Amino acid sequence: MDKRIPEHLIEEVRQRADIVEIISEHVVLKRTGKNYQGLCPFHSEKTPSFNVNPDRQMFYCFGCHAGGNVFSFLMNKENLTFVESLKILAERVGVELPEKESSPAQKQKEAKHKRGQQIHEWSAEFFHDVLLNRQEGRIGLDYLIGRGIDLETIKKFRLGYAPDGWDSLLNEMSKKSVTPEELVEFGLIVRKTNENEEKTHFYDRFRRRVIYTILDIRGAPIAFGGRVLDESLPKYLNSPETQFFNKGHNLYGLHIAYRGIREAGCALLLEGYMDVIAVHKAGFANAVGSLGTALTKDQAKLLKRYAPKVIIGYDSDEAGIQAALRAGEILLEQGLQVEVLVLKDAKDPDEFLKTHRIEEFKASLENALTFVEYQYQIMVRESPPRTIPDKAELIRKLAPHILKTGSAVEREGYERFLSLELGLTLEAVQHEIGSLDKKIGGNRGNKENFSNKQDIYVKNRNTIEGNNLDFPLESFVPLGVFRAEQIILSIILENPHLKDLVSESLPEDFWRLQEHKYIFDNYPENNLSYFQGEDSWYEQIQKRLAEIYALNIEISKAETLLRDCIQAVQTTKNKETVEELQAKMIRLENLGDMAGALAVLQEIGERLKRGEK
Ligand SMILES: [Zn+2]
After folding, report:
1. How far does the centroid of ligand 1 lie from the alpha carbon of residue 564, in Å?
2. Crossing angle, helix 426-440 and helix 408-422, to 10 degrees?
3. Residues 115 and 71 grouped into a single domain
């Protein structure tokens, strides 16, 4: 950690970056009373147990117990370090951080990334300028206007034209002191070495093509796609994958679509650049494109940040159908609801919108098939089931997808659909699917259940009102102690003036959980959002804090309760069994605390010698 990032700046970023806004870029949040709720991004679930508390600026999941502040959310979600998440948020909210000292390798990487951004920005400007203002771009502009694209849309999507010739971009960039080698690195220029001449040539990758600029979520150019205007091949050419550009992590049009997706609660996933542009132009703000490749898992995850449902609107040709089937599987695997748009008399949405009214497109969207229905149609078209065994086979093929839907209502809907389509009784269909359900669902129900281990040492439970004490037990801390510590901290966090009183009555080495000790030692004198030590330690502290806040206990007799809790922790301390000590030892080993583990091992040895268990 760079010690030169002052605490007040960290605090300023934390306060300015609204946790609800940041998290809602990853999770669909609904307001419930004072808090916001959604499906947890850290574990898979069907009913929301993920909570965001705007007053405390903390999040907490009652299902998997993930929790923390805005920094640790990004650290967890995006696998970032504290400093990285701080930087991202600082940039967003306009807080300037002092330049930090990073390793030479890191510096080089950062510099290269910045250079990449600059070069792509210049290139996008160049292609755009050629399209709009230069004679060479006229042909591209005519083409786009001919396809019904207006100037506003051209600007919104930063469309461009790569002129004929081998060195247009090369020359333009050399004016800005960009070397051919740099351009090769970002895939904008191709290098060719002639075998016998031993001479290296550089030439533009994109020539005589309409340019679709691929923008990141912030609207910055990161790559290009180019389409020819004649019959030459390849029809489409994209920037290659580089360290700078990863296709699988981006979606075409997301920079303008993400808000629309969130509002609609649904993304419209299309194949072509032109489809995305045409659909947006027709007023559907939730359209994105999968960048000309098969949909990736990361793209599916990206979509899931914005909405729980995706409608696939791929081409209606055979390749499009196969791509839609694959994309649907990937989206389902990520837990998204999937529907498929079927457009009659058109090969893609762009063509449909040219030959039909917008209302018809809207109606088609409303009548989109569920993924199971779509699969059914495709299967039936490929080989119509004529006999009873054919029909049973078809049901068995669809069953895994039907069983993936967590909703009983949805499942019955599919079963009814199949019974009607295939002319079978509902019971027969249900029986067939049910028999597969048992095979698939065999491993259910071995979730750990802590309730039978509950071991409440906290006396006078009536001093706690509205308690919600369903928390995981740290393997080496008895649940009673864990909760007693939480309650003490909860009281201190609310009533800092009681800290002195507690300090006086706490023996040394009172705290079993080091994070709890840290919170106690530092609050209220130090800011708990301030970063000290390791990233994982920081995340752990924030998680504990979120956990304590999530307890949400109303305390009526704080002082009595404090005394009870302190006593509870102390009496339990002497009751640690050998079994508990073993668990503690393993835990310490896993944490890398070998000295601690050895000490515990010695204690176990002593006790066993004394004949204790
Ligand atoms: Zn969770």
Report:
1. 31
2. 130
3. no
Residue 268 lies in a domain: yes
How many of the other CB atoms lie within 10 Å of CB of 315? 21
Dist. CA 297 → ligand 1 center (Å): 20
52 with 78, same domain: the answer is yes
pLDDT of amino acid 111: 85
Q: What is the distance in A from the centroid of ligand 1 to the CA of 568? A: 30
pTM, 2 dp: 0.60
Given this model, what pLDDT does residue 537 score? Answer: 84
Distance 166 CA to ligand 1 centre (A): 54
Q: Find the 385 Cα to ligand 1 centroid distance in Å.
A: 43
* pLDDT higher than 60, residue 149: yes
Same domain assignment for residues 269 and 398? no
Distance of CA 458 from the midpoint of ligand 1 (Å): 27
Give 447 Cα–ligand 1 centroid separation in angstroms: 14
Q: Are residues 134 and 238 in the same domain?
A: yes
Report whether 144 contacts 210 (CB < 8 A). Answer: yes
> What DSSP element (H or E) covers 262?
helix 254-264
CATH number at residue 240: 3.90.980.10
Do residues 479 and 454 touch, judged by C-beta distance below 8 A?
yes
Select from 370, 398, 431 the last residue of a domain. 370
**Residue 27 structural domain:** 7-89
User: How high is the pLDDT of residue 473?
Assistant: 37
What pLDDT, on the 0 to 100 scale, is given for residue 5?
Answer: 76
Q: Are residues 322 and 388 in the same domain?
A: no
Q: Does the structure show a pLDDT above 50 at 470?
A: no
Render 214-226 in DSSP notation, one character per residue.
Answer: EE-TTS-EEEEEE
Distance 60 CA to ligand 1 centre (A): 8
d(CA 329, CA 375): 10
Same structural domain, 202 and 232: yes
Distance (angstroms) between ligand 1 centre and the Cα of 445 equals: 18
How far is ligand 1, taken at its centre, from the CA of residue 510, in Å? 30
| Cα(67) to centroid(ligand 1), Å | 9
Whether residue 168 is contained in a domain is answered as yes
- Separation of 48 CA from ligand 1 center, angstroms? 9
Ligand 1 mean position, distance from CA 73 (Å): 12
Residue 130 lies in a domain: yes
**pLDDT tens-digit readout, 132-142:** 999 999 999 99
pLDDT of the residue at 611: 61
Q: Report d(CA 110, CA 88) in Å as an integer.
A: 13
- Ligand 1 midpoint to CA 39 (Å): 8
Do 275 and 300 lie in a common domain?
Answer: yes
Asked whether residue 108 is domain-assigned, the answer is: yes
Q: What is the DSSP string of 453-464?
A: G-------GGGE
Domain of residue 548, CATH code: 1.10.860
